[in-house]
Amino acid sequence: MNLVRSAMTVGGMTLISRFLGFARDILIAGTLGTGPIADAFFVAFKFPNLFRRLFAEGAFNSAFVPLFAKRLEGEGKASAKRFAEEALSVLLFTLIVFTIVAELTMPWLMYAIAPGFADTPDKFELGILLTRIAFPYLLFMSLVALLSAVLNSVGRFTAAAAAPIALNIVLIAALVVAVPHFDSPGVVLAWGVVVAGILQFVMLLIAVKRAGFAFHLRAPRLTPGVRRLVTLGIPGFIAGGATQFNLLAGSIIASLQDGAVSLLYYADRIYQLPLGVVGIAIGIVLLPDLSRRLRGDDVAGASNAQNRAFEFAMLLTLPAAVALAVMPGPIIQVLFERGAFTAADTRGAGLALAGFAIGLPAFVLIKVLSPGFFAREDTKTPMRFAAIGIAVNIVGSLALFFWIGHVGIALATSAAAWVNAILLGVRLVRLGHFKFDARLKSRLPRLVLSALIMGAGLWGGTILATPLLAGSFVEGIAALALLIGGGGLLFGIAILATGAAKVSDLKNAFRRA
User: Fold this and answer.
1) What is the pTM of this model?
2) CA 274 → CA 135, 244, 251, 333, 357, distances in Å?
3) Is the pLDDT of residue 56 over 80?
4) What are the angstrom distances between the C-alpha of 473 and each of 28, 271, 381?
5) Residue 83 to residue 88: CA distance in whole angstroms
6) What is the CA radius of gyration of the chain?
7) Nearest CA to 279 among 14, 67, 507?
């Protein structure tokens, strides 16, 4: 398997999904702005979506994939299929119970996930209603996570990566077709979330069947395989979802300031694009690759794979982080500033985006470094480091929020990511599981220099393009596209001039293994 090529497949599908997500968020921004309905919907959407990300990027990807790969490589397809069916049955039973309990206790849960809403009774009640409607999305998407893990383990990445596109298509259709005919746009969107979850589940069921794994439900039992999955999954749940826990903590604190939840949401949507296209894609592909190599005692191959994943991640992430830090305001302005979304909202979301941009390389490195532990069935070490990061985030958010508002939450989230990434890297090196090879040592400083050169060019270009960025939507989009294209071209010239990358390397990355 060509690691970079597979990551680009996942990243390409994610890129399509994120662009559709931008279209969705542009429509939401114009319809809801940053008012109470927007705050209530984003909380309702974030709560089940948090658990979706925890399952998809945390527990199942960290625990299920190595165990499934072990069964598949050592005992054959039938044993791997039986293990997946056992896990599916226990997961489904647990999710049904969890969903019922959450629906019944939602008024109390709302005090935990959005305590600031309690000061505004109408917003508090709307938050409860919308979260109750949207919460079953968790059930379907957690099952999608298991099916995705099976497909990823056998090297079939496209279907799982394409599934999130359905969510954005459904919500865009809801905004364009249904919302104008109903009094409550928040309720329409919440129901759209549930419909999208069902659609994605059906899509993945079909894909898994085509891959030769037609699953049948078994009676839920804690078999030895399931017990091992739970043992690895609980720490993996925390470790793999550290970023999501930090975002949830930030959302809880932000609910104390009117509009802050929405401002952080819009900023989050922008920086999640490179994180999803690069970090999450590499993490999804790298884990099964490392698991297979380590099962076959290919230690050198595993080390090379992780070094190339590190290099490829920084090649794409460093310029993205610099661009988001240099021109956050124009990006928010062009994409969202219209209708109910004001110039003041642009300033607030832009500052939050700059805060998140500082941590973007760290967010991606967590996805690159964590598989080094997960592939060795060690989920406890990343869990401990994630817990430290979460503590840093909560303390930092509380300290900075009362000083600089919602921007402090973004900065604290970035600081927590850097702490987590550094701890993971240092530990892997000390254990002898990761060593910077000569190529990475040589190219990493050159990548940093190239990104800074691009940032200087973007800074000057943004000043020159200010009149166009403040013009009509078409002018703004054209100017933003020109800035991004020009920045990308400048970065490309810089990496070739400094030797941070070679044309031959880029060609090899896209060849089939």
Assistant:
1) 0.72
2) 27, 16, 21, 19, 10
3) no
4) 16, 21, 48
5) 9
6) 22
7) 14
Each residue of 106-149: pLDDT tens digit? 988 888 777 778 778 888 888 889 989 988 998 898 888 888 88
How far apart are alpha carbons 10 and 16 in whole angstroms? 10
Q: How many CB atoms lie within 10 A of CB 446?
A: 16
Residue 363's alpha-carbon distances to 32, 69, 246, 247, in angstroms, are 29, 26, 11, 12
Which of 283, 436, 272 has its CA nearest to residue 373?
283
Which DSSP symbol is given to 338? S
Give, as one character, the DSSP assignment of residue 308: H
Least confident range from 26-35, 198-207, 349-358: namely: 26-35
Interhelix angle 406-431/242-254, nearest 10 degrees: 160
Inter-residue contact 309 to 434 (CB < 8 Å): no
pLDDT digits (tens, 9 = 90+) for 391-426: 898 899 888 988 888 889 999 999 999 999 999 999
Tell whether 320 is covered by a domain. yes
Of 435, 467, 484, the residue at which a domain comes to its end is 435
Residue 473 inside a domain? The answer is yes
**Which two structure tokens, joined as six digits, stand for 92?**
């489904």
In a domain, 440, yes or no: no
Please give the angle made by the CA atoms of 459, 463 and 466, to the nearest 5 degrees.
130
Number of domains in the chain: 2
Q: Are residues 351 and 459 in the same domain?
A: no
Domain shared by 135 and 15, yes or no: yes
State the helix-helix crossing angle for 473-498 and 438-469, rounded to 10 degrees.
Answer: 150
Query: Is pLDDT of 439 > 80?
Result: yes
Residues 162 and 206 in one domain: yes
Query: Which residues in 382-508 belong to E strands, given as ranges?
Result: none
Hey, is 212 helix, strand or coil? Answer: coil
- Residues 455, 358, single domain; the answer is no
Please, what is the angle between helix 36-54 and helix 3-32, to 10°?
160
Question: Residue 259's domain spans which residues?
Answer: 3-435
Residue 442 lies in a domain: no
Last residue of a domain, one of 435, 465, 487: 435
Contacts of 193 (CB under 8 A, 6+ apart): 44, 45, 48, 133, 134, 137, 167, 171
